[in-house]
Amino acid sequence: MTYREASEYLLGTINETASRHNPHRLDRMAALLRHLGDPHLRYPTIHVGGTSGKGSTATMLATTLTASGKRTGLHTKPHLSSMTERARIDGRAVSEEQFAELLDSMHFAIEATTHEHDRPSYYETLLALAFLAFAREAVDVAVIEVGIGGTLDGTNLIRPEVSIITNIGLDHTEILGDTLEAIASDKAGIAKPGVPLVSDAREPGRGVIVAACERIGAPFFGVAAAASVAPRASEPYGQSFAVTTERGVYELSLPVLGKFQQRNAATAIVALERLGEELRPSIERVVAGFGDLVIAGRMEFYPGFPSVVFDVAHNPDKAANLAEALAETFPGRRFSFVVAIGETKDTTGVLQPFFGLPASFVFTAFEARGRNSARPIRLVNIAEAAGLSARAIADPIEALAIARRNADAESVVVVTGSTFIVGILRDWWLANVGERSRN
Hints:
Layout: H1 3-11, H2 26-35, E1 45-49, H3 54-67, E2 72-75, E3 88-89, E4 92-93, H4 96-105, H5 107-117, H6 122-136, E5 141-145, E6 162-165, H7 173-176, H8 180-187, E7 197-199, H9 205-216, E8 220-222, H10 223-226, E9 228-232, E10 239-244, E11 249-254, H11 260-273, H12 283-291, E12 300-302, E13 307-312, H13 316-329, E14 335-340, H14 347-351, E15 359-363, H15 376-385, E16 390-392, H16 396-406, E17 412-417, H17 419-432
Parallel strand pairs: 1-5, 1-6, 2-5, 6-7, 7-8, 13-17, 14-15, 14-17, 15-16
Antiparallel strand pairs: 2-3, 3-4, 9-10, 10-11, 12-13
């Protein structure tokens, strides 16, 4: 099997689903893993859930564990450019050849599972592939990001050393419920007896999580009580701050933007401190790991004339964080937005935080099998209802070109919304402008 054949097979499974309201939904994932020899149980894991920040927090954990000398697997979703990103080891995605070989070797397990429960879905197959890759590469530990929710997510079959719920916000309401309490209840389903659970969630979600932990006997650690964050003088395109816990003071310098990442860093540190002695990195290793942090598509900045920021902000919570970070990082500057949003997302909720910034907007679309983009004119109508002018340009590369032309040398072009639009335009940027814009 070639990588192209593997990709085509997986794309053909996108519509293979099981109801997220079905209490037996995990049976198919459990069967697939059982036929593969339960690879997810062969190494220690850290489970990371939440509405926003879980991908960044998972990356922080994995980077730090790698810096401490541990062979570390990382599974996050969605990917920006390639399916191979779903299985990373020590910061590197598996090769296309490895990916194809892994999927080919899973054929017998997929067939057996299909006979019992119907064909595994796109998400289930990619997750199982990541688990299998980590087992074959004999990782010391793997960091696993929850897909959606928690209770019935395929990742909830792992037996982690520590669980994390970063925060609670409104997203995937058609699946998880339309209140913060309902969403918190679903996400709290990753709590397990005797396994520490770390969370930076605020009320009302926090109370739901604490109650769930008490019911099943999972020790709860609130980030706000366990760690304090103090800013330090920073470089122009990074940030420095101290995280203080009972263990000591972590003087961190992050080469990433966005003040919200400070809370994610504190969450990661509190979780690392809950690990057993064999896995727990020293303060010095944590500091070194954070210094090497790279988070693609999260306030990812390329200086230039104009400068460009790529950030996935596909729900209102992420959009509010991005808007706040842009205002803090680039005070007094104008923004030229390029935005595309998935059809099922809360489009008004995503756009609203950006409307308070000095900005112009170009709305565009993306093409992805199994995923639909909101029509650009619909986004224009939302902006115009808020008293703003905007343009609809269907072709994303043309939309980026127009946004850059509309921006002066001091402006910042912001590519945001769906993971798909960020991935498409980030790939184009790296191929056509690339790292030379950093010089």
